[in-house]
Every structure is written in structure tokens, then in C-alpha cells.
Amino acid sequence: MNKIQILVVEDDAPVRNLITTTLKAHDYRFATAVNGSGAVMEAASRNPDIILLDLGLPDMDGVEVIEKIRNWSNVPIIVISARSEDSDKIDALDAGADDYLTKPFSVEELLARLRVTTRRLALMAAGSRDAVFVNGQLRIDYASGCAYLGEEEMHLTPMEYRLLCLLAQNVGKVLTHKFITQSVWGSSWEKDVGSLRVFMATLRRKLERAPGAPQYIQTHIGIGYRMVRVE
Ligand code: CA
After folding, report:
1. How many CB atoms lie within 10 A of CB 102?
2. For 20-67, how does the pLDDT look when each residue is reduced to its tens digit (9 = 90+)?
């Protein structure tokens, strides 16, 4: 039996059934809510490990649900959006969501997102305050402020190093352009997204073996970036 408990918030019965059937088939425990107020109540009373949250709910916006839950909980939240507009996902991510799925999604996509989030949970539980971060060939020694790729020390500018650390500290999570620019240089002007792209390109040239097919840092077009776990 999988010990992970998932709260499924979805007002659309066929989609909710697809999700719960999938969870059942893969031995996840779950609870359901069909609106925003129910979601907040269930999140508070059941203390789930992961929340799957539809953004279009009958009684309140999904973003509002995230804001309420974030008042007391860091539970990973994966938003599900029928709306293809990136702005909804960006609002949700900025409000504290961890990841997103766009409807229609496949069962495989859903399971993949859950696996990524479960790994993050395990790492969070193992203590994320390690002095050294390791991911594939990448190693960051926070104490000395050095990053290595295999045995080679990476020659990073201070900005590239901060960017790399931010992505590493949030490995598995999608970070929006706004979040990154605010965290790394304290502002989120439109023009800074252009600068971010430039810094990211130079960082990738140093980090990725094939910058055209990045292994460590995924681009989410119009949304942001995510560092993924490399085997
Ligand atoms: Ca809905």
C-alpha cells in the first residue's frame, strides 16, 4: 500500500473519476473535494501529502484556494487547468503551486507528475539543508560557493551561481520568470525576463552537454524553468 495520501479537488465528475480510478489502480490513498471551500476544509482536516487542484471551481478561483492553504501548509500542490492560458498557471505557481497539468492530460502524465512530487517529498523529509547538493554530474558545495560538473569546477559568474543555486534548491519544481527574477535580483520587470533568458543561456552552455537538448534545466515556454533530477 502506497502511504502517500492525495487530495483530489475537481468539480468535473468524469475528470475526477479518471483521477481517482488511476490513483486507486496505483495504490495511492486519496480524498476528494468538489469545490474550493471543501478543498480548504479537507486540506486542513486530513493533512494530505499532495493536492491535485483544478483551477476552475464553482465557488472560488483555484488560486484563492492555494493562497488560503499556503497560510498554514507547504503541501505540494499540482494544479490542473482546462484553460490553456499561461497566465492562469503563472498566477497559480506564483501563489505557491508546485507544478501543473493541462487538460486534457494522460494517465501517464498524471503518474509522472506524482512521481516527481513524491521524490521531492522524500528529499524534503531527508533534510534539504545539506551542505552539498548533488544531481547527476552536478555538485554544488554551498559552504565554499563552488559548483562542479564531474571533477571539473564550473567557472560561473556570481549571477549564474545564484541562478543555479535557486534552481537546485527547488529541484523538481517549476519556477516562474517572476519568481526567479525577484529571487535572484530583486525585481520582476518585463525587461528582466529578457536578461534572465541571457543568463540562463550562458549557464546552460556551462552546465549542459548539449544546450539544445538540456538535461538539467527544462524550459517551460512563457512560464519559467525547472531543474529536473538526473539519474
Ligand atoms: Ca472545473
Report:
1. 15
2. 999 999 999 999 999 999 999 999 999 999 999 999 999 999 999 999
Distance (angstroms) between ligand 1 centre and the Cα of 12 equals 5
* 3-state SS, residue 227: strand
Tell me the CA–centroid distance for residue 72 and ligand 1, in Å.
Answer: 24
- Beta-carbon contacts of 34 under 8 Å, excluding residues fewer than 6 positions away, are 9, 10, 11, 16, 58
Question: How close is the Cα of 95 to the center of ligand 1, in Å?
Answer: 19
178: left (phi over 0), alpha (psi -120 to 50) or beta: alpha
* Cβ 15 vs Cβ 57: under 8 Å: no
Which of 64, 56, 99 lies closest to 81 in space, CA to CA? 56
Query: What residue ranges in 73-181 does DSSP mark as E strands?
Result: 77-81, 99-102, 132-135, 138-141, 146-149, 152-153, 175-176
Ligand 1 ion: Cβ-proximal residues, 5 Å cutoff: 11-12, 54, 56
pTM of the entire predicted model: 0.77
In whole angstroms, give the CA distance from residue 97 to residue 153.
34
**Least confident stretch, 58-62, 103-107, 125-129, 133-137:** 125-129
Ligand 1 geometric centre to CA of 229 (Å): 31
CA of 57 to the centre of ligand 1 (A): 5
Express each pLDDT in 141-169 by its tens digit: 988 889 999 999 999 998 899 999 999 98
Query: From ligand 1's centre to the CA of 11, what distance in Å?
Result: 5
